[in-house]
Structures are given as structure tokens and as C-alpha cells.
Amino acid sequence: MEKATDPSAPQKRPPRKLRPVRAKRDDSVMGTNDSSIASKRSVSKLYYPNEPDFYEPFTPKFQRRNPLINRGYWLRMYAIEHAVRRFLEKDDGNAKVVVNLGCGYDPTPFEFWHRHASLCQQATFIDVDYPQLIEKKMHLLSKGPFFQEALKEWNQRPSDLPVYVRSDRYLAVGCDLRELAALERILKAEMPSGSSVLFVAEVSITYMKVSDADALIQWASTIPNSNFCLLEQCLPDGPDHPFAQTMLKHFHKLTTPIHAVELYRSLYQQKARFATRGWKSVIVRNLWDLWSDPTVIGPEQRRHLDKTEPFDEWEEFALFGGHYFLLVAMNSSCEGTEETAPLEVSKDQEAREGRTMRCQFDHFKPYFKPDFPGTPRRFGAGFAVAHGHPSFAVHGGQSIQNRLASVDWFMDPDVDLIAQPRLEAPIIGARMCHTITTINGTNALLVGGRTSPNRCMADCWFLTEPNGQWIQVEDIKPGRFRHTATNIPISSTGLSTEAVLIFGGKTGSGQVLDDWKVWIPTCGWRDVDIIGDRPPARFGCSLSSFHESTRGLLFGGMDSNGIVLEDIWEWELMAESEIQLRVVKRTVDVEPGSTVPYARIGASLLPFGSDLILIGGVAKNHVLSYADEILVVDCSSNNLRFERIERSDPEGQRPLLVGFSAAVMPDSYHMEIVISGGGAVCFSMGSFWNLGCFAIGRVGHPKFYKWQCRVLEARGTLQAKPSKRDLIANKGDEIIAKKEDMTIKTETIPRLRINSAEDFAQIVTASKPVILSGLNLGPCVHTWTPDYLKEKIGADRSLVVHECSDNQMKFRDKNFSYIKKTFTEFMDGVVRGEKMYLRSLSSDQPSRLPTKLSDDFPTIASDFHIPDILTPIISENLHSSPLRISGPVSLWLHYDVLANILCQIRGSKTLILYPPSDVKYLDFPPGGSSSNINVLSPTLFKDHPNLRYTHPHRASLCPGDVLFIPPMWSHTATPDEGVSVAVNVFFRSLGAGYAAGKDVYGNRDLQAYENGRRDVAKIIKAFKGLPGPQSQFYLERLAAELRDKADELGNEGGA
């Protein structure tokens, strides 16, 4: 007789004997479910806000993922929903059963009953997973009202284990998928007779041994009227592809290796896997191919996605989609199906397609050992300049933690520095997805770009020679990013020169552009009239002129629906009485029979002798193979031919040709192309960065240039070159230096001008430090001289200040003392160079109340203004505004829990900041906000070798600058010279979580941390009475769990 069960109460499971190693492996596999469900909840809350929160019972704390993960998981979820919906819609006269194999916490049945109620009237959903997971799932689900209501409606009935819940429309079954006999017995007993069955396995059976998964696939084919939907990973270009490398390392690190790809790397192999195990019809497509199919995802759905969350991570999205696939198999014939199975090309076929051109692709002195290889950056803008000696530079782009405003400048080390061309970094805001185009070999034009996908730029800057400075020129209208540009010869007002031709791009509002513009040094921007058909609007396309020609090609790019375009256009500029562009469509002229993937987004198209060369990017519906990444476009005949090149990448140094910068060296008849930067965030599995410089040249070409890199900061100054610099290796999201005595590369805090309170709100939300310039702080910047301050504050006013005998105050050693001085004594002392420092306190209750400039220094408060553009965020959340005055002494490393802006009033100051993720290396004592490490020590890395793994940032402040310091960014400050005067404004930015009670300095830790420290004490007390080694064993395990969770949360909030 069956027993009635309460799904909210834990149930007794039959005892099962598992080997410890197998049990641990099963636990790791079940652990992957937690991260996946948190990401799916992010998708559900974002894209389906009007639906019940089906995921809340499993992950009560909502964590919004970044746009790439949101869209990737949306595509995963949509692909499964699409397959299940197609199955339910098929009218075959049978009842429908959907069996979710390895269901985890997925609430798929409840989502379907909510969205597609009419399709589910005759459908039964069966969840199958490990018994312990199903038990927990039912317990958590019981807390959701929709679950209880659904079971009541579907006539819940008593059940015996391993069936945890039984109803007319839903069953929850606890069964190991390796136990096929038990699974078959349960399903035959529970499924309606004569049913059509769909087995669904979403990234679940790949964690099984391949032999076990194959047995499951074969067994499922024996069930009458069965279908199989499989979604998991693939390796379309093998395990050496950079994305594949990162993905495989990620799953191995989690101790959950994905086994299926060991034998079934390609879609062709997956299709054969099912075809040889009883499945008569097999359709398999990668997720990027599904995305690219407008019949699967319609325009309205795509517009909804873009409207909900601005998105521009297209290359990374394509790499993710190309490494996951959806397979649908049936064990009966499928005549009349609308879909076909795209077969992969065999190696023999691949060798026959296209021709191979004898070109060389080389990597110069990998990582430039022992020279600096350049800043890790992607989606910067590269350009070549030459004033007798060629050089190559890359500006801006996205780095590991922030967007950049600096320039990597690659020069020939054999040429005297004095003889090198001069170059400065443009004094503009950090940006990415912009263009810089060389003009006449010695000048260049920078156009547009973006910060975030909905914040594009219109400003343009012209590089002059011979002084290498940038001057601002007329803006391009409208502002844009991901446009494409090329230089062309032009005659204007009787003067022959080179101009810059611009096409397409995207605006901050999401509009995709189809306009052509030309910039001429003598007259600025001019619109271009089109003769012939106008190419459709697009962004991220490939555009280039032929060598010293007014003709060129345009192809690829992406339309407003997020689909890569496959058309090819030839254009010719005519500048007689008017500037016109004659455009002819040449898609039909591609060499017959060629399937080489020329249609791409994010590729570079450059002149290469009499031909053009196409480099990198991502293709329309699959991952580019190694052989297809670099193609030569031969236009010498009526047909367009795409030819592969011979490559000689150093072993283990294959670059990821996405987000890179490339340029042609100007003095070598376009016979050498230099590539720098690039890489990608590999979904949630880490990042891959190209380090060093690559080059392309023909075989027999004279010796390649050697390159040495220098970094130009945004102020136009040359970053000092470290005395010892060695190999920098990529490891996940970190750049790790490998010599113990080397100097760690310091990121420069970006300098921005903002235009609205919304701009500042975005900066606060992003929680990354930024220097804001051009703001009005009031007359204090000019009036706060030492004499003025003494007069206004009062010569005899008594204050408590820090006095130090050293030039660095050390909190641990307490090498300073607190002394009382009159304001005159203090100011006269710091002017003389005495090592004193004031951080003002409340004049009424210094040990109880935070200080405010208006209360404690009313005679000078009116001189200082919090800029109007910042007040909407700060005024409502204001905590304190201490006055800081310092002589030549550095403050110790510390962090603040409150966000703050440091407004530099007088003198200059340099700050070193460390992101929150570096806290594990900075030796903060328990409960303390001041570090025990002197990060300015000349023997820093010898004394603290783990600081090699930190990510320091540098901010150089001048009068009028405002530095935003996010919460928990550890920092130290040093005046550059003379007296430094600043006002520090603290405010609450986290919304919740602050500890109740007194907080004088704005550095009282969050309530959760204070509670956690008490919990730690309780945990340690719980081990009292156990032997030391055993206590250490479990405490080490708990510490490791906390560390893993900290890393996971840190990665979710990463750049």
C-alpha cells in the first residue's frame, strides 16, 4: 500500500552504499546546480518580471548577473523551452511526458504550466535526479505557494519512495541516472500507457562517465515514441581553442570535468553518437546558430532583450553559443520536419576548400622577454605612425578591471629614443569600441567610442606631428561606437591629402546606423552621398580601402536584430564637385563553391599588398576554425576569392582573435601587419587575454620588426619602465607576475568628465574608482592658501594632529603620536616640511559624532561646494566631510566602508588603491580596517611576496580633481610636494547592511561581518575538547568553503 507523504518534510531514503570518491564526485556535480540556478533567477527576474518568481525558493538572495551571463542563460533556457514546446505542439494523438534527467532545481514544469497552459493539459512532467537532491528540492519547493496550489489542482496522491511527489501532472523521482533498471521500472509504472516521451538533459549527463551517459542514451531509445533533447558543451575547434581551454580548466578546477567532450567534441560526432544508439532522426545545432536563426528567435523577442538590458558583448556571446549545442533526436522517422541537420566539414573536405597562401603568421619573442608586453586590453583602437621610424600604438579598451585611457606604444628598441616619433596619450576619458585611423603616415584621427553600451561618445581628436599631441576637432554626429573606418586619398580644395571614411556603428540609444561620412583635415566632417544601392545599417563590420586607392570593400557586421550579415559591397569614393560614393553589391561574385566564412563581426580588414587581409572576429553561426581565422581576400579577378594562410604560431601561444587591435606598418609597402591585445571573458568560466604582439608577413619578407612597449598615461607622460620585468601569464581572471623581485604593474585610475547626475549614479553603481575632472568645487581651490586658512579658522584654535618622525605613518608600529597644536603652529610646521597630518574630528563630540565641514569649520565651509552634479546621490546619504591637511608624510593603508569622494583643493597627491578582491593579501587584522603592511616600503615584495598577486591602482590628483573611492577599496595617500589640502565627503552607497550605532570615521564594518566574527567564535568554541589536528582539519575545510564562496561572489561582481 502506498504511503501519503508530505513534501515539506524530509523523508527516509533507502540506504545506498557509495564509494567515498564517487560520493564526493556526486556532491561536486550537484554543487554546479547552485550557481546555475542563481543565474537563471537573474534571467527570470530581469526578462520575465511579471511572472511568479519560480526560482526564489532555491536561491532566496537575488544576485543580478552581468549582461553576458544573463543573455547566455536566457539563450540556454529558451533553447530548452523551444524544444519542449515543439514536442508538446506535435499532434500525434498521444499523451505527452517530459522527463527531465538531472533536473537539479529547475522549475521547468511550473514555468510551462504558467506560460503554456493549453499545451500542458495532457502533459505530465517528471523530474529525476539524485535522491538527496530531489528530497531537498521538494522541501524547498514546499515553501512556494505556487507549488502547493499546483499540486492541489493536479490531484496530489500518496507516494512511496523513490517517488517523492506524485500527482496527475507532476512527479518527482529520486534515482541515480546510472541505475537504468530502476529508472525504467519507475517510469513504466508512472507514465500513461502509449505516451510520447521527451527526455531532457541540460548540462547534466556530461558529468557522467561517457560509458554511463552512452548507456543512458541507448536505453532511452528503446522507450516507444521517445525523443531526446540534449544541451551541453562541445569543442568545435578542439581543446586548444582559447575559449575551450578556459572552459575545460574551469570545470576541472570545480572537480566536475565535462566528460562527453573527451569522445564527442564536434556536432558531427554528437550526431553519430545518437545515430549509432537507436535514434533514427537527429538534429543538432550550436546555440549561436540557433540565435542567428530568425525563425527560432523572432525580432520582437530580440527587441525585448535589448530594451531590458543594453548589450554589447557579442563576440563573447558568440563564443559561448558556439561551444554549447542543442540536439533533438527521435526514435521514429521524422518525415516532413522543417529543420535539417547541418553537418560539420570533415578534415578532408576542409583541406580542399579554399586555397592556402604562403604567408607567415609569427609571434615575436613571446611576451617580449624581458621587456614589458603591453597592457592587457581588448576593444581598444590600434594605429601606426611613422616619422622616419615606424611604431604601433593601441589606445583605450577594456582592461582586467576597468576601461583604459592609456596608450601602449610599440617601438623599435634598436632606434634611439630621441629619433623615435613623438606620441602622447590623448587627455580624454577612457573608452572602448572606437577607431583611430592613420592619415598621411604621421597623423591620426580618433573617433567616438563608448563607456557602457548606452553611453556612446561623439568627440574626435586629431594627432598632430611632429610634437605627437592630440587636439580636439569637430564632433561626429550622431555619436557612435563599433563603427568602422579606413583612410583614403582625396583631393580637396586643390590639395591632395588622406581622409578618413566612416561607415555605420551604433548609438547610445541602440540605433544602428547606415550613414557614410568622411573627415578631411582641411574642412572636417562631410556627409557622403550614395550612388547605387545603400548597404543596410550595421555595426562591427569590416571596411578597408585597397593600397593607395579610392576603392575598397565592405562586408560582415551585425544588424539591429543581432544577426551577422553575409553581404559584400565594393565602393569607390569620388570627390569632384561633390563627395559621392559609388556602391555595388558583390555577394554573388564570391568564388563558386566556397564556404569559407567571410561574414563576421569584430574582424579587422586591412590592405596587404595588392590584396586585403581579414583577421579574426566571430562568424555568423559557428566558431571560426584555426585555419579560417585569417584570410586573404584576392580581388584580382572578377570573382572574390578567400585564401587561407600558413601560420607558425609558437606552440601553446594561439591568440584569441577577438577584441584585438591591428594596423599596417606604413613604410613596408603593407607587408607587415601588427596585432596587439584582445581576448574575451569566457562566460562565467574566467577570462583569456592575449599578451604580447603578433605579426603577419609574407614568406621571404625581410626580417620582422622587433618591438618594445612603453605605456603612455592619459596625461601624456611616459610610464616608467620597471628595471626587472618578466613573463606575465594568464591565470583565470588574474595577471600573475612570476619573478619575486619584479615591480607589479599599476593600473591608472581613469579620468572622466561627466554630464549628469545619472552619470555619477552609474559610477557609484559600478563601484570602481574614477577621477572626475572639470567640476566646480567653489572658490576654495583658489583661496585656501595657508595664510587664508589661518585667518579664517583662527590662529589659536587647538586641534589634534598626527606627528611622525618618518615620511610614512605605520599604523601597526604606531610610529606617530597624537598631539595638540594651535592651527597656526600646525600650518607653519607643514609649510616648513614637518611631517604632520590633520584629519579633522567633530569639535563638539569627537569620540561620538562624525565631523562635518559646515559644523566644525563654519568660517571656510561656504568656500567649498559639493558639485551640483553629485548632490542628488550624496546629499541624501551624507555621513561626514572631514578636512584633510598634510605635510610630506604618507598615510597608512586602510579601507573605508562608506563610499567617499576625495576633493583635492590645494597641492597634488598620489594615492595607491587596491580592489576588494586583494584583501586576502593585505594583512588586515581581524576586525581592523588598517593594514599591517607598509605598501610603500622599498622591500615590499621581499617582505610580503604574496603582494605580487595584487592589482594596485594609481590616482594622481591636482587641485580641482575629485576621486571617487568605492567601499572597501584599500588605499594610501602621499602628497607629491608642499602642503596638501582636501575635503573628504563620505556617504552611504550600499542601501542596506550598515551596522547600527556609532561610526565616527565611516569605517565601521558591515553588520554581516560583525555578526560573522561572532559566528566564527562560536564555531571555534564548538571544536573545544577535540584534539588539535582534528580541529584544524575541519576548520581548514570550513575556511576553504568560505574562500571558494568569496571567490565566486567576487567573480560575479567582476569587470
Automatic annotation (TrEMBL):
Residue ranges that the Swiss-Prot or TrEMBL entry lists as coiled coil: none
Region of interest called Disordered, as start-end residue ranges on this chain: 1-35
Keywords: Methyltransferase, S-adenosyl-L-methionine, Transferase, tRNA processing
PROSITE patterns per UniProt: JMJC
Domain JmjC positions: 846-1004
Keyword Ribosomal protein listed: no
SUPFAM superfamilies: Clavaminate synthase-like (SSF51197), Galactose oxidase, central domain (SSF50965), S-adenosyl-L-methionine-dependent methyltransferases (SSF53335)
Domain of life of the source: Eukaryota
Catalytic activity: 7-[(3S)-(3-amino-3-methoxycarbonyl)propyl]wyosine(37) in tRNA(Phe) + S-adenosyl-L-methionine + CO2 = wybutosine(37) in tRNA(Phe) + S-adenosyl-L-homocysteine + 2 H(+); 7-[(3S)-3-amino-3-carboxypropyl]wyosine(37) in tRNA(Phe) + S-adenosyl-L-methionine = 7-[(3S)-(3-amino-3-methoxycarbonyl)propyl]wyosine(37) in tRNA(Phe) + S-adenosyl-L-homocysteine
EC number: 2.1.1.290, 2.3.1.231
Enzyme class: transferase
Pathway named in the protein's UniProt entry: tRNA modification; wybutosine-tRNA(Phe) biosynthesis
GO BP terms: tRNA methylation; wybutosine biosynthetic process
Signal peptide: none
Biased composition (Basic residues): 13-22
PANTHER family: TRNA WYBUTOSINE-SYNTHESIZING PROTEIN 4
Protein name in the entry: tRNA wybutosine-synthesizing protein 4
